[in-house]
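Quick note —
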Amino acid sequence: MTLDEYRAYIVQKLSVCKNPALVPDVLAETEVMLAATKVTPLAQERLWQGIRSDLEVLRQRSLQLDPDAGELLRSVIAAARWGIANYQRLLSK
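Predicted structure written out below.
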């Protein structure tokens, strides 16, 4: 699986997540995969940035959902953005 395929896989998992509290588990899975495959810090940053970009597209789509589903998805996206920002801060150190 390429990093782009993995990015799509993670975004798909986030898009169907029914509980924002589970988002850290999805992101931790990504961190473990990155560590296990020894992906360079630059490639890691690109992956996280790609996920963030995909989440923005997903946020735009959430505005077309019924109010409850859209709000849930936006909550998941907010949790994912927060978690990704933390991983990006660690990479920048």
